[in-house]
Each structure stands twice: as C-alpha cells, then as structure tokens.
Design goal:
CATH class of the largest domain in chain A: Alpha Beta
Strand content of chain A: 15-25%
CATH superfamily of the largest domain in chain A: ANL, N-terminal domain
Shape of chain A: globular
Largest sheet of chain A: 5 strands, parallel
Radius of gyration of chain B: 19 Å
Structural class of chain B: alpha/beta
Number of domains of chain B: 2
Distance between the termini of chain B: 44 Å
CATH superfamily of the largest domain in chain B: P-loop containing nucleotide triphosphate hydrolases
Number of domains of chain A: 3
Structural class of chain A: alpha/beta
Strand order of the largest sheet of chain A: 4-3-5-6-7
Number of strands of chain B: 10
CATH class of the largest domain in chain B: Alpha Beta
Radius of gyration of chain A: 25 Å
CATH architecture of the largest domain in chain B: 3-Layer(aba) Sandwich
Order of helices and strands of chain B: EEEHEEHEHHHHEHEHEEHH
Oligomer: heterodimer
Strand content of chain B: 15-25%
Helix content of chain A: 25-40%
Helix content of chain B: 25-40%
Largest sheet of chain B: 6 strands, mixed
Number of helices of chain A: 21
Number of helices of chain B: 10
CATH topology of the largest domain in chain A: Rossmann fold
CATH topology of the largest domain in chain B: Rossmann fold
Chain lengths: 642, 257
C-alpha cells in the first residue's frame, strides 16, 4: 500500500520548511572543500536557499520562467533548484560536460533568461551560448576564480546576487512559496537524445514527490540515510535520488570535492544509499580483481577461497533462503577476513541499498556485490516517469530482470513487445513539443517506454532492447542488438560493442576493448604496446576477443529464440567510442545508426569477405579541436556454436 | 612608473674557462611575467640560479627590492620571498602531494623543533593554519584527487604542478619557473599556462620563467629577455622580440661567411 500522501507539503519549498522545523539540527548537505567536509543543517540550508531565492527575485526571475543550472554537483546548485521553485520558476539542470552548441539548444529551447554557472569554464561556454540564445541575459557564477577580468554586463557573482536579494522581505517570499501547488511544473529535464534533438521533460511536483514517496516506502529509506551526489544533476536519477528523495525522507546529500575524487570521497562518506550505473560497478570490480592479482599468494588464496564461499552462500543469506550452520559460520569468517575489508576499501561498508540502472548489468558483477552482502538492486525507469517503473523487492532479486512494477505503477506489454506504463510519475508534456508528447503516450494515457520486454514466470519484467531496434535477420531470425552487445560487454575486456544484423544475413560486431583490462592482460602476457590503437590491432587481442565472442555464441545458442543471431564476424575498433564524437550519448549509450554511417566502410567490410579494412575518421579533442585518425583494421570470422 | 622588484646589472658567471653569462643586465618589474628565452646553453638556468642565490656571479650585481645582495645563499633568497621550480623536478618522491607542498611552508613555521616534535598546543594550531593554506593551493591547482598520492607515482605533468604548488606555498613575491612546460602535452601546457596566469593575477606574484615553447612565451609573458651564448641579445615586449633580427638568427641559425 502506498503511504498516506503528505498533501500539506506538496512542493519542495514546503518540504524544506517542514524539514527545517522537524530536523533543524540534522545535517542536510555536505561538501568537501579545502580537504574538509563542510556541512549545512536543514535550518542552515533553508536560510541559504531563502537568501538565494530573494537574490534570484532581485535579478528578475519570475513565476513560470526557467533558469538553467550548469556545473558539477555543488550545494549551491542544488539550493538553486529549490530557490527557483520558491519563486515558482522552473529549474533546468544542464549536462555540465555538454559543448556550447548542445547547451545552446537546451537554453534556447527553454527560453532561459538566467543561468547559474559553477565556474569560469562554464561561464565561458555560457557566454558563447548567449550569442546563439539571445534571451540569456544573466549569468551568475558561484566560483569567482579566474573571473576578475570579465567585464561582460551579463555576469554577476554569487555574493553580489545574495546582496541584491536583501531588498526583498521574508513575508513576501513566504507568500510566493505558499502560491506553489502540487500540479505546478517543478523541474524540466532534457533527455539525452539518443535520437534527434533533446526533449524537455516537464515534471510536476506531484509527479516527482509522489514517486519519491513510493520509492522511499518500497525500499525503506529514512532520514538516517546518506547519499553521495556525483552523477550529473541534469540526469533524472540524480534529481530523484539526491534531491527529491532527500527532501521527502530528510536524508543527507554529500557532494564530492571534484569529479576526480569521487572514489576517495565515497570511502570517507560511506553512503548507506548508493546509485551507480553498471559501468561504475564494473570498474570497481575490475580494480579489485587487478589489485588482487597483484597481491601476495596468501591474500590471493584467501580472496579466491572466500569469494567462492560468498558466491555459494552470500546471496542465499541475503535472500533469506536456508543456509547450513557451517556455511553461515564460514561466511561470517569471510566477512571478518575478506568481505568486510573489501567493502571498507570501496567505501561500501555502510551501504544498505544500492541501485543500478540505465544498462543491463553483467550477472557476474551483480552477483559479486550481492554475495558480499551488499543489497544491490536493479531498477527500471525513465525521465518521463520520474524514474521508477520497476523495482526489485528484497528477497526476490534476479540479475536478468528488473523486478516487479513499482508502487502505483501499471504496466502493459503492447503487441510489438513495447512496455507501456501508467503511474503518478508519468510526465505531463514535453516542453513546446506537442507532437512528441502525443507520440509518447497511448490514447488511454500510457507512456510508451520504447523498450521491448516481457514478464517472466514470477511476474518480473525482462527488458531485451529498444523496441525500435529489435530487428530481424534476412532469414527472419529475431535480432536484438543490445542483447548481443550486452552479452559481450559483460566481459571485462570489452568496453563497448556495436552489433549489426537487421536485414542482413548474419550478425557482425564492432568491439571496443577496455584499455585498463586488456592493457593489464597484455602486460601479464608480455605484449608490448604504445597506444590504444596499437593494442587494439594486436593479433593476440583479436584472439582474446575472439574467445569472448565464441562464449557469447554458446550463450545465445542456449536460447532457441536467439540462437540464430550468433556473431559471425567481428573487428576491434582502433579508437574508443566517445560522446564528444557523437558516437555515444552523454549517458554513454551507443548511437548505433550514427556509428553505422560514420564507419560505413567498416560495416561494408564486415559484410564482404575482406579480412582487412581501412578507415579514416575525424576525432574531437576535449577542447573541441578536430583531428583525423587513420587505421587499417583486421576482421575475424567466428564459428557459430551448435 | 612601475616598481622594479629585481635588477640584474652586468652579471657575469664563469665555470673555469666557460663563460656562462657575460655582462647581462635586465630588470623585473613588480607584478609582471618576465620570460627568459634562448637556445640551449644560452645561460638561462644559470641566470635563474644567480637570482635565487645558488650561484654567486663572478662580476656584476643583483639588486632585489632595492637592496644589493652580496654572497646570498638560497635559503636567504627563499626567506626574502623568492621561490622556484626546477627543470628536472626536485620533489620528495616518496612523500604525498600534500606533504610535499607542506614543505614549502617550512620557512613560515615559527615553532621550534621541540614543539613540532610534541605536535601539540601552539605547534598544532600552527600546523592547522598552514594546512589550510596548503589546501587552498591544492584547490587552486585542482589537484585534490592526488592529495594523498605519493608524488613518485604521478605522471610528469602532475608532478610539475605539485612543484609549482610547493613554490606557491612559500607565498613568494618572485616566482622563478625553470621550464614549467617541458615535456608536457598540449592539454597539460594549456592547464599550466592558465595556472601561471592565475597565480600572477590572483596573487599578484611576479614571475620569471624560462621556457622553450615560443608560442607559450609570446602568449603569456609581458616582457621577454633573450640570451645567446651567455649574452643578452634582445629585451622587450613579445612582439618586438619576435621581430628582432638577432633573435631570429639565434633561433634559426645564420650562414657564416
């Protein structure tokens, strides 16, 4: 049963007021600065947010207008979300690593007048953006470093903004906050745009708060929890976990010192609630494996022995299944000798609840964490549904499904296999895009997720691919490219894979090696290399990847529906697929169509009988300059498994 | 008229028969970025070594803050507000970034050996104050992620940055940088340029730097002095120096009759 909804506090500014009363002295937020964790209680944070709201009012932010927020996860930017909501304005967090052009689209489309930028880097970008989006006339910066020679009249420092707000009095602000209603727009999040231009998803306070309440009840979050806010603020997950759920449950949000210090900060904070995409869990596991390989013989033996024990008993223990007394003891010993120390080193000792989503997670990776006694769960969601569609209940967790429908969520599977959703979290509309809005919903009000999936025997949803990407080989065999790619990506050596096959006679793939894992493997095997490109072209690496492909074929062969979509040919790409080159989305999903066009020469070669192919591709450096990269790639055939 | 921080007058330096510097004169104005350039073996590093008291000029004089220095030792130069980095990184490889930068604060520590060993009371309060200063430098140079990493494990570009941090920890009035960008890739160079400009503008630190990358030198320095075979051949703003025939000849070579 969903909890009785707290309708008196139907907006975040009202929830802030409640928390400042109820939890005045509890820490609401921390940020590491100058090597020390600085903290703000709910009462202190309310004061900061009120001052900021008055400052924004002073520079003309009005009800219904939008305000762009650009930067890493910083308390001031989180405060700005709530401060804007106090005034009835709509915060629009923007992906901070977007280049100026991408940013200009969002800011222009949202008709934003005011932007808050974290630092000089973002200000520089916004000044470029302002040339293309002339409505943008005010840029507030929170870090004054390097800003002294900027004379642009659009610029304003954070302190000056707060000072400007002193003219407004508290009763005026209270009245503004009281005007806010649950049905009002609370936030606008631009979807990363796997296809076409990004779309602005408008979510109301009711959408976000109801969904957060349900999720908090489902997974028993409380004010005692701690979270590390390190994923982009523009991503719906961060908005729900680090903002909405924190306000509703009253728990503490921790902002890391910088993007590069996340792993250190994670260890210092030891969050109880932790979200990471599968890629990060995978990286952590790779790190652990590599470090264990380098450890002494005794430690290595201990690790192997107890990880085997954990694999047998850890998951069963957590799922409450019967485990013999001896195994319990054995596991307890492992907890003291191995599991505890590993969790401590990773900063996961206090993790009570972990989520992963966005991509399928490898069963080995998923089981590794669960066997250590970490309650890692998959969830399934979308920006348009305020995240939660499916969640995994304690004790019923499988690595290949995303769980059951979340509270108050109805799910239907369409004729073509597409998953349709109705829930309190389903968005009202795409901003200024009625065509896309009507296209995204069925006439009876279900949101079309665009994912293909089915329910298994236990009523758990299994997602196989994007509905539109599910294709057929020329002989009619079902081909779900992502399913094939994910199977490959479950190997630590494979960073990305791109599968082709729709309308073709066989399946062929591009593989991106993982530099860290393959590099380490090369080192151990005495294979010298000087660059990514050289490593990727080594015949030994082809052998290694070939082995992975054969294993995938064996797995596919086991499933009669998918046996026909085994991989017959592959090549290893000479460069890493990169969001800056448009090959990945900002959330690191491969853009298959774009890649097929860009590397058309290679795709053609895969479907010829050539054993080499030449490619010349442009690359974009981090600072935006362009270069060219030429390479001669090998192509390998693979036998299909019976 | 801007205030002259350091004046080098007719300085010569010889090692046995080799004349490293002959009668070089130039000045450094407070608040500027002054580049010293020249082909290999022109005497650039020798010049820096004279300025910070590591070498004693065999003739000529150096006036720093209006006071002529005779036989100055490097520690006296350091106490007088001159800090430097080295061409071949000279950090404590086994110590962390934080500790390395802390060593830059050494001259600012007031408490004696006894208190420091005790690490209590006033010594502790002092260390906290210094640590805070060092943390500001770490933040400034954006090296938070390597705060606790032993310096020997860091890539070259980051080691250079740590070395800059250690020099900054001394709160210098005059900062000498010996090839701060040698061996760096383009991105690292751009970062380093930004840090040098920021140090100069944010803290008002006067900077004298030796650098081989002409693009960098011409972009960031206010004035450039050019040495060749131990002699000064040009001195002036970047554009003037760039156009100077003797400089072009020194760099491109000239046909001997």
């Amino acid at each position: 049963m969903p909890p009785p909804a707290d309708r008196a506090h139907d907006t975040f500014p009202k929830l802030l007021r409640r928390n400042a009363n109820l939890r005045a002295m509890r820490v609401a937020m921390r940020e590491k600065e100058f090597g020390i964790w600085q903290s703000w209680t709910w009462a202190a944070m309310e004061a900061e947010i009120r001052n900021l709201a008055k400052g924004l009012a002073a520079i003309g932010l009005k009800r219904g207008q939008t305000i762009a927020l650009v930067g890493d996860n910083r308390p001031k930017l989180y405060w700005a979300i709530c401060a804007a909501q106090c005034l009835g304005a709509i915060p629009v967090p923007v992906y901070q690593d977007a280049v100026a052009d991408e940013m200009a689209f969002v800011i222009g489309h949202a008709e934003t007048h005011i932007a808050i930028a974290e630092d000089q880097e973002q200000v520089d970008k916004l000044l470029l953006v302002a040339q293309k989006a002339p409505a943008l006339t005010r840029i507030v910066f929170t870090d004054a470093r390097g800003m002294r020679n900027y004379a642009d009249p659009a610029l304003l420092g954070y302190e000056a903004l707060i000072a400007a707000g002193k003219a407004f009095d508290d009763s005026w602000l209270d009245a503004e906050i009281a005007k806010g209603k649950g049905g009002d727009a609370s936030v606008m999040l631009y979807t990363s745009g796997t296809t076409g231009q990004p779309k602005g998803v408008l979510l109301s306070f009711d959408n976000v708060i109801r969904t957060a309440e349900n999720a908090i009840t489902f997974d028993k979050l409380s004010e005692a929890d701690e979270i590390l806010a390190y994923l982009p603020m523009a991503w719906v997950g961060d908005h729900i976990f680090s903002y909405a759920e924190a306000y509703v449950a009253g728990f503490c949000v921790n902002c890391p010192e910088s993007g590069a210090t996340v792993m250190t900060d994670l260890k210092e904070i030891g969050p109880s609630f932790f979200f990471a995409p599968p890629r990060i869990f995978e990286n952590i596991l790779t790190q652990v494996s590599i470090r264990m390989e380098d450890a002494g013989a005794i430690k290595r033996w201990l690790y192997r022995h107890f990880m085997a024990v954990a694999k047998r008993t850890g998951i069963a223990l957590m799922d409450g299944k019967p485990v013999s007394a001896f195994d319990r003891l054995h596991y307890a010993l492992g907890e003291i000798l191995v599991y505890g120390p590993i969790k401590n080193v990773l900063g996961l000792s206090r993790m009570r609840l972990g989520y992963t989503a966005g991509e399928a997670i490898g069963p080995d990776i998923f089981d590794f964490y669960r066997s250590l006694g970490l309650n890692l769960k998959q969830l399934y969601g979308a920006t348009e549904t305020s995240v939660f569609i499916c969640m995994q209940p304690d004790g019923q967790i499988k690595s290949d499904t995303v769980g059951i429908a979340a509270p108050e969520v109805e799910i239907k599977i369409a004729e073509n296999g597409e998953v349709l959703v109705k829930s309190p979290g389903v968005f009202a509309a795409y901003y200024k895009n009625p065509d896309a809005t009507s296209g995204a919903k069925t006439p009876d009000g279900y949101y079309r997720t665009g994912d293909a999936g089915f329910f298994d025997r236990d009523g758990h949803l299994k997602i196989i691919d994007r509905a539109k990407d599910v294709g057929r080989l020329s002989d009619g065999t079902l081909f779900a490219p992502k399913y094939v790619e994910n199977k490959l990506k479950f190997f630590s050596y494979v960073k990305e894979a791109v599968a082709f096959g729709d309308g073709r006679d066989r399946v062929a793939v591009f593989v991106n090696i993982d530099l860290e894992a393959v590099g380490n493997w090369a080192e151990r095997n005495g294979i010298a290399y000087a660059s990514y490109q050289e490593l990727a072209a080594k015949p030994e690496v082809y052998e290694l990847i070939g082995g992975c492909v054969e294993q995938v074929n064996r797995d596919l062969a086991a499933d009669p529906q998918l046996a026909g979509s085994q991989i017959r040919r592959f090549l290893v790409l000479h460069k890493e697929l990169d969001a800056d080159d448009g090959e990945l989305t900002r959330t690191r999903k491969v853009r298959r169509g774009f890649i097929a066009e860009r590397y058309a020469a290679l795709v053609d070669a895969l479907y010829s009988d050539a054993d080499r192919a030449h490619i010349s591709a442009s690359i974009t450096y981090e600072d935006g300059r362009k270069g060219r990269l030429d390479a001669d790639l090998m192509i390998r055939d693979v036998k299909a498994a019976a | 008229m801007s205030e002259i921080l350091l004046k080098v007058e007719n300085v010569s330096l010889g090692f046995g028969g080799v004349k490293a510097l002959s009668e070089v004169s130039f000045d450094i104005v407070k608040g500027e970025i002054r580049a010293i350039i020249g082909p290999n073996g022109a005497g650039k590093s020798s010049m820096l070594n004279c300025i910070n008291g590591f070498y004693q000029p065999s003739a000529g004089r150096i006036v720093y803050k209006g006071v002529e220095r005779s036989a100055m030792r490097p520690h006296a130069a350091a106490a007088g507000g001159i800090a430097r980095t080295f061409q071949n990184i000279a950090l404590f490889k086994g110590m962390s970034t934080l500790d390395n930068i802390m060593t830059g604060r050494l001259l600012k520590m007031k408490r004696g050996f006894f208190w420091q060993c005790l690490h209590w009371g006033p010594a502790r309060a002092e260390e906290i104050a210094h640590r805070e200063f060092v943390e500001r430098i770490i933040d400034f140079l954006e090296i938070q992620a390597i705060r606790k990493t032993p310096v020997g494990r860091l890539p070259y570009g980051l080691q250079k940055r740590v070395e800059l941090g250690r020099a900054l920890a001394a709160e210098p009035e005059l900062l000498l940088l010996d090839e701060p960008m040698a061996g760096m890739n383009l991105e690292e160079k751009e970062d380093m340029c930004r840090f040098i400009l920021d140090v100069n503008e944010e803290f008002g630190t006067t900077i004298a730097l030796i650098e081989h990358d002409m693009g960098v030198v011409m972009d960031i320095s206010d004035r450039v002095v050019v040495l060749e075979y131990g002699r000064k051949i040009a001195d002036g703003v970047p554009d003037a120096v760039k156009a100077d025939k003797r400089v072009i000849d020194a760099y491109l070579g000239v046909a001997h009759e």
